[in-house]
Amino acid sequence: MGKEIILSCETNTEGLTVTWEKDGQKLMCVQDKHIMKQDGTECSLKILNADERDDGNYTIQLENNLGTASCSAMVNVELSEWRTVQWEQNATVSSLKEFKIDNDHVRQLRFLLYGPVGAGKSSIINTIRTIFEDRQFEGLCVNCPVATLSKCYTKNYLKYSIGTEGALPLIFSDTMGVEKGESEGVCSDDIINALKGHITEGYVFNPTGQILEDNPLYRINPSLSDRIHCLVNVIAADKIALMDVEVINKMKKVREAASRIGFPQVVFMTRVDLACPLTTRNLHCIYRSRKIKENMQKCSNLLGVPVNCIFPVKNYYEETTVNEDTNCLMLDALKHIIPWVHKYVVNCSTMSTNKQ
Ligand SMILES: Nc1nc2c(ncn2[C@@H]2O[C@H](COP(=O)(O)OP(=O)(O)O)[C@@H](O)[C@H]2O)c(=O)[nH]1
Ligand SMILES: [Mg+2]
After folding, report:
1. What is the pTM of this model?
2. Of 9, 46, 129, 305, which sees the most CB atoms within 10 A?
3. What CATH code would you report for 5-75?
4. Please, what is the average pLDDT of the chain?
């Protein structure tokens, strides 16, 4: 952003007719923006003070009496960094490992992961466990393409602790994915029941109907420590544009119920590496990428969650070794969310104590 871009082309003969094109159209030279040069066998196009309007596919067309030739280059102007991440993990890992809940009634902050099938919910838990246990996890049922076809994916309501022997006071609950169709995927009312603490872990989600009160896994009077303290909506960055309206409406219903309860809600936008080539090459560019920013804005519009509550993350999915950049991006999200959820729990507890 704001820099100078030079596209240059070396030819093997002089005296060529040169035309520059942008996205298939002849480039109209704008004063103080484009400088075209032809010096012997060297042709160049200088783009001054680059901004997002300069993005595009630039082609140089060369012509002489023997024929024509062309050559193209893609220009992608990075944004100025609009959120910063600490790309060194030790300090954050240590401070989160030392985190304690300032409350006698709640031992663990509870997060529920919710979103479409294949969005990366189970992978998020794998990734967080990998960070705090310093080894690659394969414990959860993560969708593989074959498994997705045979519909073998997360069906149970399961909770996962974090850190060796649950050293961190955090619990992540995995859920069945949302799907379009009346009796497909997790039932929205069951997610709302789970948020309120009515569902005990181990319950097998039933797409055709919510849990009944006489089910042994139905908790009639959940306490603050049984309830969920943060709803984590999970959306895959590369699938946002393809999201079915029925899935979006189901997610909105849950979000509205969560808003009535009043606890923190965030979005983890996964699979950023599949949505943006700049980010695939270098995760440090994530908050310079226009594609990521646009996708975050789309998530915000779809679900009604403000952009500052949306965290792009990359999960472990095929790697066999731990990667500090992957860890740091996830840690950045946790570092922002945990104090917020902690404050919510302490406030709830104080309010219920005052009522007694
Ligand atoms: N490239 C990439 N793949 C991911 C990422 N997160 C998840 N996946 C893959 O996406 C698929 C679905 O992930 P999964 O965690 O099972 O989704 P769930 O149905 O929401 O639990 C799996 O094949 C994962 O390996 C990511 O950040 N990047
Ligand atoms: Mg899953």
Report:
1. 0.86
2. 129
3. 2.60.40.10
4. 91
